[in-house]
Amino acid sequence: MMRALALIAVLAVAAPVAADTIAITGATIYQRSDRKLDNATIVIRDGQIAELGAGVAVPAGATRIDGKGKTVTAGLIESATQLGLIEVDAEESGNDGRFGAQPTEIHAAYRAVDGYDGRSVGIPVARTGGLTSAITGPSGGLVAGQAAWVSLADAAAPLAPIRAPAAMVIALGRNAMPAGSRGQTVERLRELFDDVDAYRRNRAGFERNASRHLIAQRLDLEALIPVLDGRDLRRRRRARHAGPRQDRRRRGVERRSAGADVAGRGRGHRRRGPVARHPPVPAARPLQDAAQAVTARTVGQRRRRRI
Q1: Of 24, 61, 101, 139, which is the most buried if we count CB atoms within 10 A?
Q2: How much is the pTM?
């Protein structure tokens, strides 16, 4: 017979009053996956772990929870969900952030935090399973939009996420494009990143309607620039119109902030990948490969193209 495993660390974030002191006694506590404490006590004060160990005394006036036969672990993080966006799957009015491939498959400017409902009935249910935070994001189309990392704490403010945006959601499966072809999906993604690169180099021309047709709208193109550069999605660079010299100087700052090592000036100009001190935004490996392929192709064509 399987022994029930109770994950009661979630009590630390679900406490009704943050100033209460809580002591979980006699529990099996995992500080890490390789560090186990038997018959230990954990004291939570003002919503934070104050003491932890086998010989920890329970403070006077603390709310005592008997942890005998139970296991305490760190809170779990759900890394891919639509919690707080999809309330009732079959009810359209309760769904937010679900797109199809028509009229457009690109929704990069959509932010999950704008549609997130911190009062969703699914959040308390998720907490009972040990989840204390989640990365919730949109779905549908080629580029669904920007996911957010949200706290599932009982007292968490719905519009105060841990990190937003946290990642860009891009699909490479059959439903990303109307045709259902994975090869065509990757082709469309290369074209999209090519357009993002063209847009950031010629914003002024785009605003004057003096550039070639781009497959995405302005806000979507702006949202994808950090993805192409491998930068943190939260770091926004103010768009402004400047002369050619200022524009070249600004692009140089972009490359340095993206951790890119640029060598050469002429036809042999090549951009290398981001360095380790600038951690990339979580994304699928095919997305990184596609971005690198687009960058290499657009650099080679730069002298031949006039926008």
Answers
A1: 24
A2: 0.65
